[in-house]
Design brief:
By secondary structure, the chain is mainly β. It has a domain of 103 residues: Immunoglobulin-like (Sandwich). It is built from four helices and 49 strands. A hairpin with a 5-residue loop joins strand 29 and strand 30. The longest helix has 17 residues. It starts with a helix and ends with a strand. Pfam families: ANAPC4_WD40.
Length: 566
């Protein structure tokens, strides 16, 4: 892949330069500087032995730029605003020796793997694309960046300390999967599950004690439920928390989806409803509830904690309800409808959405027909009705041999100036949605798009054929975009080397190639990630994955683990 080659070249260059003669070795003659890597935010240094690094001095043209006393063993990460294609002088003082050498900054930064933290083993049936794509768990940093909360497919909640790169504590839920995690500002870790009870848990970060549990099953009519499976592969539980958000005041907001099959006139009928509610952080009791009479698949909270809305799954009418977080009442609403007739009309419609960091805009990607809407949220709240700025069908349907070929977005994110989304594989929208029914690849499939708020395309990047990206994570300052990537094995063009994580620096001038910082390849399916509040550290959840679509063959790649990158 193009990005992988770029990264490999940068790493090789850095390692060649770091192999320059090491001067001024005073002490242990066997001790050397093993590698020096220029990262997004500084310089990573690794010694040949786990010695205590007492001081690191970096100079340029005889002028000292950085003096750092890490006190760490064997390796150190030093903050540095370095310039590309520039020579620096490095001095390292350890408890065994002092070393000095020149180092050369490359054109672009490179990733550094800080740690790999093993998670629980997964069963064979869990090592598949649909399991990761639709039931991926989550990893999130705490507000101060000191901890990482992990929700796992095997039903565990983990707390990882960033400084030690070790699991502090873990908790096993009684049944189901941990679907979401989030931290409060007052030292709590919230975790939600997919299960029969639909529990939301609150843990004390320091002790791991369970402080309270909210059982969402109490808010739904659970009579008549018929358990089922997705293709006889894994359980499809009746209650799933597909939305969990926490604001700066530690208020907790959840969106629970209820899957129900009832017998009506002797026939089973599938029904789906959802509920958005705000929970009291002290005891887990609902402060308010907002029912949704259809499917939902996500929850979006404004950065200032004033507005929240649910993303809606497929329905005849998908209603956007922007709620006041104080009362749970709609501030304004907009209804999306699907064509009564035509390709995929039986699916209905749905949408993904985002709120800009400053709260001014709400952007929606309607899934069918694939259309992007931009609303002025400020004016909509003032008038009590939707103030639509524009709508645009960026993803066009193409006719290939009489078969309409389309693609659709699967996520959307906003900065204060840009609208960002990526697309799913090509689909034959007029007949079967199976990839085998597609006579040609849609040129916009498996692609990252970035538009300005006037609807003008700024840049795009081909992520790779047959890839899956369910979320884009933007750093708090809007500088970096992180994309975890997996592959769809049934796509003949899907390349396992394409699994991993992309990092783009959005503020850098130029097009996609200029903005791409690096691509880090993971052996297995990279399905979720996060970036620390200070933008320095990135985490990726990797799962073992059978890259051979033949059910009678196995080609398992990767492990179930949390990867920490700089």
């Amino acid at each position: 892949m193009q990005s992988f080659k770029i990264c490999a070249t940068a790493i090789i260059a850095v390692l060649i330069f770091s192999g320059c003669a090491q001067k001024g070795n005073q002490g242990d003659e066997n001790l050397t500087i093993d590698s020096v890597v220029f990262t997004r935010t500084g310089l990573f240094l690794k010694m040949s032995e786990p010695v205590s690094i007492q001081k690191v001095v970096l100079s340029k043209d005889g002028r000292i730029l950085v003096t750092h006393s890490p006190g760490t063993a064997g390796q150190a990460l030093i903050d540095l605003a370095w310039c590309n294609n520039t020579k620096y002088d490095l001095e390292v003082v350890t408890d065994k020796a002092s070393l000095a050498m020149p180092v050369y900054a490359p054109e672009k930064p490179s990733p550094v793997k800080i740690a790999e933290i093993p998670l629980e083993d997964l069963e064979k049936k869990e090592m598949e694309y649909l399991y990761y794509a639709w039931r991926g768990a989550q990893a999130r940093f705490s507000p101060d960046g000191a901890f990482i909360g992990v929700g796992s497919k095997g039903g565990y909640v983990y707390l990882v300390r960033v400084s030690s790169k070790k699991i502090v504590w873990k908790h096993k839920i009684p049944e189901g999967r941990v679907s979401k995690v989030a931290f409060t500002n007052d030292g709590k870790l919230i975790a939600a599950e997919e299960s029969r009870d639909g529990n939301v848990y609150c843990f004390d970060v320091n002790s791991g004690d369970l402080l309270w549990t909210y059982r969402s099953a109490n808010d739904f009519d659970m009579q008549g439920f018929h358990p089922k499976t997705m293709g006889d592969r894994f359980p499809n539980y009746p209650l799933v928390c597909w939305g969990l958000c926490v604001d700066a005041k530690s208020n907790v907001y959840v969106m629970i989806r209820h899957n129900l099959e009832k017998t009506v006139n002797g026939r089973r009928k599938s029904m789906t409803t959802a509920l958005v509610c705000r929970l009291n952080t002290q005891n887990g009791e609902p402060v308010w509830r907002f029912p949704i009479n259809t499917s939902a698949w996500g929850l979006i909270l404004s950065r200032d904690g004033r507005f929240v809305f649910a993303e809606i799954g497929f329905a005849k009418e998908a209603v956007l309800s922007v709620l006041d977080t104080r009362s749970g009442t709609p501030l304004w609403q907009y209804t999306f409808t699907s064509p009564a007739k035509g390709p995929r009309s039986r699916w209905g419609t749905g949408f993904n959405g985002a709120i800009s960091p400053d709260g001014r805009y709400v952007a929606i990607n309607q899934t069918y027909p694939s259309t992007t809407f931009l609303f002025d949220n400020t004016k909509s709240i003032e008038s009590g009705r939707p103030e639509l700025l524009w709508k645009n069908q960026f993803l066009k349907t193409l006719d290939v041999g009489g078969i309409p070929i389309g693609t659709s977005s699967i996520n959307i994110e906003l900065t204060d100036t840009e609208l960002i989304f990526s697309t799913y594989r090509a689909q034959a929208t007029g007949r079967s949605t199976s990839p085998t029914a597609v006579p040609a690849m849609h040129p916009d499939a498996d692609t990252l798009f970035v538009y300005d708020f006037n609807g003008n395309l700024k840049w795009k990047w081909k992520i790779g054929d047959g890839t899956w990206n369910s979320e884009g994570i933007i750093s708090t300052d809007g500088r970096y975009l992180v994309l975890p990537i997996g592959v769809v094995p049934s796509n003949a063009l899907a390349d396992p080397e394409g699994m991993g994580v992309y990092v783009f620096e959005l503020s850098r001038p130029g097009g996609a190639s200029a903005k791409l910082d690096w691509f880090h390849h993971t052996e297995g399916f990279a399905y979720k990630g996060d970036i620390s509040p200070d933008g320095k550290t990135i985490v990726v959840l990797e799962g073992p994955f059978d890259v051979d679509p033949d059910p009678l063959k196995e080609d398992i790649r990767g492990k179930h683990r949390l990867i920490i990158l700089s």
